[in-house]
Amino acid sequence: MAQREELTRFLKAARAKLAPSEVGLPAGERRRTRGLRREEVATLAGMSVTWYTWFEQGREVQLSAPMLERLSRTLRLSPNEREFLFALAQHRPPPLARRADETIHAGTQHLMDALSFPALVIVEDWTVIGWNRYVGQAFRDYSLLPREERNLFRILMLHPRYRADPDKFQDMCRRLIARFKWDYSRTAQPDVFEGIIADMMEQSEFFQRYWQDSEIMAHFEDTNIADMPGVGEIMFRHTSYAIEEAPGQRLLLFAPLDDVSAARLARLVADEEAPALA
Prior knowledge:
The protein is α+β, with helices and mostly antiparallel strands. It has helices at about 1-15, 40-45, 50-55, 65-75, 80-90, 105-115, 135-140, 150-160, 165-185, 190-205, 205-210, 260-275; strands at about 120, 130, 220-230, 230-240, 250-255. Strand 1 and strand 2 (about 130) form a beta hairpin. Helix 2 (about 40-45) packs across helix 3 and helix 4 packs antiparallel against helix 5. The longest helix is centred in the middle third of the chain and has 21 residues, at about 165-185. The chain is elongated.
């Protein structure tokens, strides 16, 4: 029982040290206590409020290692604090902390190359590290960009090509920021995210507006349009998937939304592959 009581004290103290603004939440109304509320911690860590509440209260509930990792990141625990949490909760050391994996595994690249539509891979800070040939034809050639210019979040928020429809652009920004905030709450490298956040505060009026909102989005799917010279508009529906063999990497797929778009994409590819006439 003594360890459960210590776990309760530790978790309360950890969330009391965090200001809402540190995790992308507005201060809101006047708070009776310092720090984050239980329901805010639960939401940011991807847990049910009831489950987290019982865990903090010292009840006999067990959290898996991935859930404890998410809780550690949400509470911004130091390496020693993370180890302390695992020791109290599971009576064993935590798994070794993983370094970010930026190697595109052969299976992942083979899958992307076998697809008939654009696909790319990003790491947790949204930097693009892999792609197939359709990405260069439909969006941009990432092979021409140095790594520091391949951050997809910056590109989508700042590139003029996405501002043609102001209403759609504003809605896209709101949704992107809600998802970026979710990823920020889970990162093991908050300094990288905070550099992006500081830059965006200076460069984007929409980021300044929506970063203070409480909206958080754990999953992001949407449609987008690429206006391709010679073939017209191609509408894509995109979604993302975690890559099991490479923690921290996400595979983004851009599938044509309808038959017309599929035909135009096929025509675009055929035009690119056609041999030049002598």
